[in-house]
Recover the amino acids of this structure.
């Protein structure tokens, strides 16, 4: 099985905040690592998971301990006063505890979790991971979330399916895997706590945090279509053409759609002489992340303006184009700069990559799940 | 912190919490002081207002003042904070106060836990089958409250919560029974002195004419006797259940006298022979003895009920110098003990110690001159009839049992021949009571007859004493046991005769033989005063056969409850285990317990698994569809292989045109349910489908 730490960003909130200092912390870190390794071995990552005895852990809760203590006190009282009925209440409480072991377990078991859509985000924002739940019977009061964060509650009572979105704040760009989260329940009596750690196989891109800054280079025309009048400039409205995949949503003629029930894109004629290239060298001398952030801002801005632009960063060149998919390719290139190649689908094999970025071109967009807005 | 302060008990839970609080306190209500009940009510209302957002929870200071003053008030009321009464009052108070202090889920949990405690403490005072059943219901409600705490706060189906609670408890009951039967009963971990209980109805150790008459109007049960084997129930005239011996008369009241017969030198603990019984005393447990188990209601007294000359092998039961059985501690709970009683009794037959003779000859120095006169006259008559010599009024010694017996016969004849009347409607007596009773009113109850009889015996120099207890009892044909009620209370006399020992005489039997043979009811038939203060008592309507049957069945149920549940103590456990399994030690018992509980839990888990599988294989829509197919194939149109529901229904429409409407509706429902599983009104559609199929 692939190990988790293949250089990818596998953010989890508590790991971000942790500062490793001191011997004790490192010892704890070692234990945690061992635990995580054991856990990921025991509960391997998969796209769809059904909770069963392999995955569910169960222990008495503090309330459960209190409950048993009370049963013990009643037992002593019953023995001392020779009162059979008080003894019987004590026995009833103990049996209730025992029976609720089964019920607490059962409340989790049989629940199927499936990774749903994930939305990409920028650093500093939150990634949305959707989970689909389904089961063939009722489940109640299951809390789902990351540890040490407020969790959400799931109830499958009248319907057999439900959906939930977990929001994860991210602080590093790259490919963010769906971190391991906790599915926990104390239903029915709160005397026991059953839980499972789930690692769903889903991932999301985290783009660099856009940094607002002017583009310092003069945007000299490049390439051979330099001075031709572009039919698809963005200055003046030219007409409508049938919508093609990849056209920006912002250009769709919604009024026309309302009238004719057909999607058309507005075309603009202009005398935009140049195809702009966003260059890595534009911000030379800055740290990598600052460069990426500035480029990211430029990509977003130009996309908003409907410009045609290309992106050149070391080892990768995105040919000039425009539209949603183009923007995504650019952002993706920025997000993954210097990191491992994207695990395209399924489990990252992480076997023999040498850290050299792939060349991604607009003509050959790799299918990237979770990136479909 | 603010998130913590915002915690509200979920609506669902609060509903059941308040309901169970009310229900759990109701049985305590009669015992608790009124102010405490008002405080409970206030707390409940306050909590409700908090929930509705009108009021806020009390602040720290208010709570502190409430708790302290609550404690002080309980202390002021009971004089202590310990013991069942004050303890349960404190518990109820704590239950209510904690309800006002639920800032966190943990607080709410503690309220629920206190609820279970309130239920348990109610069993200190009341262990009847009905109360236990009621408390079972309260437990269901408390469990529902606990469940509600762990449900979504948006969950607002109290009934569903109750159903889950019911299921949980239902599944716990078999386990509980196993634990109850098998968990080893150990003796008390520390010894306790329970505070004095509330006043009980029952015998009193002082008889002033009129006391027992009051008792006769109560139909409460005193005790039950199960004979072993059940066929050996003694005849009614032998059913004299001794409890007390009264040997001191002060001219007005019979009491137990200055010698404490319940204290150490006068009581023999242990199953061996007491030193005061001669070796030839017939305490042989031969075939000529009754073996039985008495299950008595709490009396708050130490005396036990048994026939003459009884002994018990039970460790907590002793035998007193006046041949009664005594419990080591006051009987505050239903109590069972095993007894053996010889059919032929002779107690102290060889020698009566001087001090005992003196006690049983005691009379006030003056008063009742006419009765003394009467005794003298009767004695002389007896003497002259026997023709013996020396007068024995002054002589203390001398064996002349013939005269003694003749004299006793004279006195008994007096009661039989003079116009004495057995009645509960007693005239007032004052002054020389015995004189007035014997010579003027001549109407009274057992204690009057017994008192006058003993007086006459002592006046003639015969050691005699009053025995108080119960006489009779009703056989329950279902269980073959005897039920003795409070109205069976009785008083009779014992006279010591040389060579025969203490002999029982019942002057009441002379006046009203039916009292002894058939019970108080028959004796009071003409008068109609039997249980006249409790017109609804089923015992008044013994002539209605079905009612009697019902009453006896109910009594049997209660008897079994007392015997098998309440009376299930270490000894009963040993006996039961011995019968089922032979000899087992603690280790084996532990293993057995573990295995049984494990098996039960595994069975439950398997059953759940099976149920879940079944559920997953058959979702409600498919189940309805299969039912439809089954129904229609019985009417000749079965579903073809590979046929879709729609085409099947179309075929059905052709075949049964009169049902076209239903089939069309079914078709659209099935399509919707199969292909649109996420609609909001799915539950309604499923129900509709089920009803439609059902109607076909």
């Amino acid at each position: 099985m692939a190990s988790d730490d293949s250089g990818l960003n596998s953010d989890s909130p508590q790991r971000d905040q942790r500062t490793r200092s001191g011997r004790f912390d490192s010892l704890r870190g070692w234990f945690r690592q061992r635990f995580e390794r054991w856990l990921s071995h025991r509960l391997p990552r998969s796209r769809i998971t059904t909770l069963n005895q392999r995955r569910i852990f169960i222990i008495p809760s503090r309330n459960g301990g209190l409950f048993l203590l009370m049963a013990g006190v009643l037992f002593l009282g019953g023995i001392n006063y020779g009162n059979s009925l008080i003894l019987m209440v004590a026995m009833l409480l103990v049996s209730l505890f025992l029976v609720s072991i089964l019920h607490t377990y059962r409340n989790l078991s049989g629940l199927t979790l499936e990774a749903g859509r994930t939305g990409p985000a920028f650093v500093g924002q939150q990634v949305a991971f959707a989970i689909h739940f389904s089961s063939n019977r009722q489940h109640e009061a299951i809390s789902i979330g990351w540890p040490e964060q407020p969790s959400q509650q799931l109830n499958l009572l009248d319907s057999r399916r439900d959906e939930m979105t977990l929001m994860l704040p991210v602080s590093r760009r790259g490919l963010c895997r769906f971190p391991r989260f906790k599915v926990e329940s104390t239903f029915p009596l709160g005397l026991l706590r059953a839980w499972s750690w789930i690692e769903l196989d889903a991932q999301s891109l985290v783009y660099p945090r856009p940094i607002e800054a002017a583009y310092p280079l003069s945007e000299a025309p490049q390439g051979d279509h330099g001075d031709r009048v572009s039919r698809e400039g963005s200055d003046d409205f030219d007409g409508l053409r049938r919508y093609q995949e990849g056209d920006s949503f912002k250009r769709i003629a919604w009024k026309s759609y309302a009238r004719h029930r057909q999607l058309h894109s507005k075309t603009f004629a202009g005398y935009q002489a140049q195809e702009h290239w966003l260059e890595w060298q534009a911000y030379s001398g800055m740290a990598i992340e600052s460069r990426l952030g500035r480029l990211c801002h430029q990509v977003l801005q130009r996309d908003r303006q409907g410009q045609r632009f290309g992106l050149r960063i070391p080892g990768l060149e995105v040919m000039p184009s425009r539209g949603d998919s183009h923007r995504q390719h650019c952002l993706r290139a920025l997000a993954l700069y210097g990191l491992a190649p994207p695990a395209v689908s399924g489990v990252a094999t992480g076997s023999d990559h040498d850290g050299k970025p792939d060349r991604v071109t607009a003509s050959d967009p790799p299918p990237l799940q979770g990136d479909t807005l | 912190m603010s998130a913590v302060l915002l915690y509200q008990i979920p609506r669902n839970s609060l509903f059941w919490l308040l309901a169970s609080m009310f229900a759990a306190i109701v049985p305590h209500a009669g015992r608790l002081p009124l102010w405490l009940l008002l405080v409970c009510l206030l707390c409940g209302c306050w909590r409700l207002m908090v929930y509705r957002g009108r009021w806020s929870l009390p602040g720290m200071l208010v709570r502190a003042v409430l708790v302290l003053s609550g404690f002080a008030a309980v202390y002021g009321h009971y004089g202590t904070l310990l013991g069942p009464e004050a303890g349960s009052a404190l518990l109820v108070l704590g239950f209510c106060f904690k309800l006002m202090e639920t800032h966190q889920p943990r607080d709410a949990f503690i309220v629920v836990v206190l609820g279970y405690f309130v239920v348990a403490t109610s069993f200190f005072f009341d262990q009847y089958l009905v109360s236990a059943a009621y408390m079972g219901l309260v437990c269901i409600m408390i469990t529902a409250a606990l469940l509600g705490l762990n449900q979504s706060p948006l969950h607002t189906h109290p009934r569903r919560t109750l159903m889950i609670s019911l299921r949980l408890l239902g599944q716990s009951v078999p386990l509980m029974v196993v634990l109850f039967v098998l968990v080893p009963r150990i003796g008390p971990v520390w010894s306790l002195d329970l505070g004095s209980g509330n006043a009980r109805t029952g015998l009193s150790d002082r008889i002033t004419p009129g006391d027992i008459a009051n008792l006769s109007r109560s139909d409460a049960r005193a005790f039950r006797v199960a004979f072993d084997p059940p066929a050996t129930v003694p005849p009614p005239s032998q059913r004299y259940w001794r409890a007390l011996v009264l040997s001191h008369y002060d001219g007005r009241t019979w009491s137990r006298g200055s010698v404490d017969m319940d204290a150490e030198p006068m009581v023999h603990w242990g199953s061996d022979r007491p030193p005061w019984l001669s070796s030839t005393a017939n305490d042989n447990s031969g075939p000529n003895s009754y073996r039985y188990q008495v299950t008595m209601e709490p009396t708050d007294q130490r005396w036990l009920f048994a026939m003459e000359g009884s002994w018990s092998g039970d460790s907590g039961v002793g035998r007193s110098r006046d041949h009664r059985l005594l419990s080591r501690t006051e009987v505050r709970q239903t109590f069972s003990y095993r007894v053996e009683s010889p059919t032929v009794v002779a107690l102290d037959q060889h020698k009566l110690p001087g001090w005992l003779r003196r006690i049983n000859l005691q009379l006030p120095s003056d008063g009742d001159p006419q009765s003394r006169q009467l005794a003298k006259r009767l004695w002389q008559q007896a003497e002259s009839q026997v023709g013996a010599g020396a007068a024995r009024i002054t002589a203390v010694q001398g064996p002349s049992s013939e005269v003694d017996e003749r004299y006793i016969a004279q006195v008994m004849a007096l009661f039989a021949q003079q116009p004495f009347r057995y009645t509960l409607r007693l005239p007032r007596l004052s002054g020389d009571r015995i004189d007035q009773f014997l010579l003027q009113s001549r109407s009274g109850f057992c204690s009057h007859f017994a008192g006058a009889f003993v007086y006459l015996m002592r006046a003639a120099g015969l050691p005699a004493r009053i025995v108080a207890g119960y006489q009779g009892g009703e056989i329950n044909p279902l269980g073959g046991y005897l039920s003795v009620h409070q109205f069976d209370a009785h008083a009779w006399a014992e006279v010591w005769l040389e060579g025969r020992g203490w002999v029982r005489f019942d002057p009441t039997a002379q006046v009203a033989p039916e009292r002894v043979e058939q019970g108080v009811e028959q004796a009071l038939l003409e008068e109609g005063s039997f249980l006249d203060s409790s017109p609804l008592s089923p015992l008044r309507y013994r002539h209605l056969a079905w009612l009697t049957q019902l009453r006896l069945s109910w009594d049997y149920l209660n008897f079994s409850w007392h015997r098998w549940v309440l009376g299930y103590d270490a000894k009963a456990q040993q006996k039961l285990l011995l019968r089922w399994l032979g000899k087992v030690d603690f280790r084996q018992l532990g293993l057995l317990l573990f295995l049984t509980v494990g098996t039960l839990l595994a069975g439950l888990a398997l059953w759940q698994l099976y149920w879940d599988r079944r559920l997953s294989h058959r979702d409600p829509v498919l189940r309805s569809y299969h039912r439809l197919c089954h129904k229609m194939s019985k009417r000749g149109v079965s579903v073809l292989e590979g046929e879709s529901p729609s085409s099947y229904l179309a075929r059905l429409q052709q075949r049964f045109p009169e049902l076209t409407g239903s089939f069309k509706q079914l078709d659209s429902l099935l399509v919707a349910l199969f292909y649109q599983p996420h609609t909001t009104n799915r539950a309604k559609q499923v129900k509709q489908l089920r009803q439609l199929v059902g109607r076909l």
The first helix of chain B runs from residue 2 to 5.
